[in-house]
Amino acid sequence: MIHLSRWKVILLALSFAFGLLFAWPNLLSAEQRAALPGWLPKSGVNLGLDLQGGSYLLLEVDVPAMREKRLTNLGEDARTVLGEAGVDISGIVREGAGVIVTLADPAASDLALEAMRGLVSGGGEPIADRTVQRLGGGRIRYAYTQQAVDAMAADAVTQSIEVVRRRIDNLGTREPSITRQGADRIVIQAPGESDPAQLERTIGKTAQLTFQMVDMENSVEEALAGFPPPDSEVVADENGAPYLVKKRVLVSGENLTRAFVTQDQNRQTAIGFRFDSAGGRRFGEATAANIGKPFAIILDGEVISAPVIRSAITGGEGIIEGSFSIEEAAELVGLLNGGALPAPLRVEERRTVTAELGADAVAAGALSTTIGFIIILVFMLLSYGFLFGGISIVGLLLNGLLIIAAMSMTGAALTLPGIAGLVLTFAVAVDANVLIYERMRDEARAGRSVIASLDAGFNKAMGTIIDANLTTLVAALIMFVFGAGPVRGFAWTLTIGVFTSMLSAVLVAQVALAWWLKVARPKKLPISE
């Protein structure tokens, strides 16, 4: 192993070149980095929440509320479909994962069953998450399958993470960390976001947008007195004024393709919207059939506008008028474009790390890294002399350079535990050199030649080095997969360090000692004493 191979020299040179090129942008200003070629990193190493400052939120997905809403929708879907088919019902009751519809006339069971089967088919294909079943006695069960119920929580958390990510991206927050914790929780770390109230307000809104007809046939006063019609509900606006609206949703935010800030005919701030083809068609049909009647635009259970339909709104476009400020309209547009949350989110924990505290953490991390490096430097020079100790120090410098380059290239965030991982990486890297040198020393003391001692040092220590690094890598991967936040930052830095230390500690020592052996032709190993 101790010979000057050309491929090892080339690999070492490429490693230094890669480290210098991809670590160098960290020394430049933002303007200078922007002018760099496209293949070089433009952002450098990102600082995590604990080093840069920012906001931390622990959210819980309200899965029971989502299930309750979906079960309510089942009942309303059944009521609407049977009403359109001309089938009278005497009641709808909740049962397990669905509802049981009781018909006023059991003789209409076949017609009702055929109408409701349309609820569990799309384009002629069955929808796997719902079933329709005749129970006898004029009763029909419409319910979610057990598989769908079991998957609701996991699907809700996954969808919520994607919606939250889009909303945070609209805020311009840099390198947010959004991870799942447990079965129904989400951890959000937003470095640089100094206003947690704004972050919480933006994230926490479900942004459920619906268009529903106002019920003009029944009295809102009677509904408030406790006698609402079965197909209507009371919804208030921001001032508390009540509206009696039909429960049936004409069009929802699921059909929304784009929202934008615009102006109405009076040059007041308004919100423009555009539906997809299916939503545009339903919206056009609904407005054409209800000219002269008001409909309510409801966001998160609050009426934000209730205009009267003057004519059919075709083309799938329209505007929402209201007393919006430009800031309110822009925030609402961001929420609508980000998508609706499948379930409400509850804030379980919130923390703010100030920029000053982050700067203190950076200074403390830099100091600890420097002290650790100096201690290693002194130890190696005193234990193995200027030549062998110096080679180890060069390997450590390359190791640090490669870690910074790799983190810059991947956009990984450096956290305070990540700095601890960096210090630990230096110790692991130099440990490989210690194993190699001690084996060389033992071989030299046993009377073997210089070249035989060097060769035996690498050959016989390599198994131990690989075993130690694999063990560290497995531990780091476990922490990365099952950990969250700072733990993952530590694991990521340690993982990068395992690969770079194997390259730097072993390769630098092999090339440098092979060159020394070729040039100096020593008769005795300097570290044999």
Beta-strand percent range: 15-25%
Gyration radius from CA atoms, angstroms: 33 Å
| Residues in helix, % | 40-55%
What is the topology, as strand order, of the major beta sheet? 9-10-2-20
Largest sheet: 4 strands, antiparallel
| Structural class category | alpha+beta
Structural topology:
Elements: H1 6-23, H2 30-34, E1 46-47, H3 49-52, E2 54-61, H4 63-84, E3 89-95, E4 98-103, H5 109-117, E5 121-122, E6 125-126, E7 130-136, E8 139-144, H6 146-171, E9 177-181, E10 185-191, H7 196-204, E11 209-213, H8 220-224, E12 232-236, E13 242-246, E14 251-252, E15 256-263, E16 269-275, H9 277-289, E17 295-299, E18 302-305, E19 317-320, H10 326-338, E20 345-353, H11 355-410, E21 413-414, H12 416-445, H13 450-482, H14 486-520
Parallel strand pairs: 1-21
Antiparallel strand pairs: 2-10, 2-20, 3-4, 4-8, 5-6, 7-8, 9-10, 11-14, 11-17, 12-13, 15-16, 16-19, 17-18
Helix pairs in contact: 1-11, 6-10, 11-12, 11-14, 12-13, 12-14, 13-14
Q: Any key phrases for this structure?
A:
21 strands, alpha+beta, 14 helices, 529 residues
Describe this structure in words.
The protein is an alpha+beta fold. Helices cover 53% and strands 20% of the residues. A four-stranded antiparallel sheet has the order 9-10-2-20. It has a four-stranded antiparallel sheet with strand order 3-4-8-7. A four-stranded antiparallel sheet has the order 14-11-17-18. Helix 6 packs across helix 10 and helix 12 packs parallel to helix 14. The chain is elongated.
